Amino acid sequence: MTCPLCASDAPLSSFPVPGGPADASVDICATCAAQIDGTPEANHWRGLASSMWSEDAAVQVLSVRMLKRIAAPWAQDLLDQVYLDEDTQTWVDNQAAASRHKDANGATLNQGDNVVLIKDLPVKGAGFTAKRGTAVRGISLVADNPEHIEGRVEGQRIVILTQFVKKK
């Protein structure tokens, strides 16, 4: 059997998918299991381009959750393409772990929230300044740093410090 997430031909073990049906699990390889719980290595997850279209909702949920964690332009492009039915999208968003990401006022930030910049921010390497009051829709949380979020400003995907945003 091959891993439904990365398509590697390795021994598989059952991995629970929290937030949905109580007995939901997917048989995945040890590398995928370790990276789901740890730091994802972007190149390992290139197989998500096909697994996100799986007929198994649990595979879709894991695929989308991992795409949200990967800080690579190709992962965001795939997220922009994916379509999930309402129940599956709720499952994706229903993660047990509470976010440690907080805005300037201490409000909890979650994946997909909309925020507003509270300060003009020069964007390094892009040659523009993100102006105060700019709305950033559908943010992504940087998994290993609660002080960083990602979002699109003027068509560019940028990293933003949480201290310079407030939740809409």
Write structural notes for this entry.
The protein has 168 residues and is α+β, with helices and mostly antiparallel strands. The chain folds into two domains: 82 residues, no CATH class; 53 residues, Roll (SH3 type barrels). It contains five helices and ten strands; from the N terminus they run ββαααααββββββββ. A three-stranded antiparallel sheet has the order 6-3-10, with no helix packed on it. Helix 3 crosses helix 5. It starts with 11 loop residues before the first strand and ends with a strand. The model has no long low-confidence stretch (mean pLDDT 90).
Name the helix and strand elements from N-terminus to C-terminus, one letter apiece: EEHHHHHEEEEEEEE
Instruction: Give the helix proportion (percent range).
Output: 25-40%
How far is the N terminus from the C terminus? 46 Å
Strand order of the largest sheet: 6-3-10
Alpha-beta content class:
alpha+beta
Quick structural gist:
Keywords: Hydrolase. The protein is of the alpha+beta class. It contains five helices and ten strands; from the N terminus they run E-E-H-H-H-H-H-E-E-E-E-E-E-E-E.
Keywords:
alpha+beta; 5 helices; 168 residues
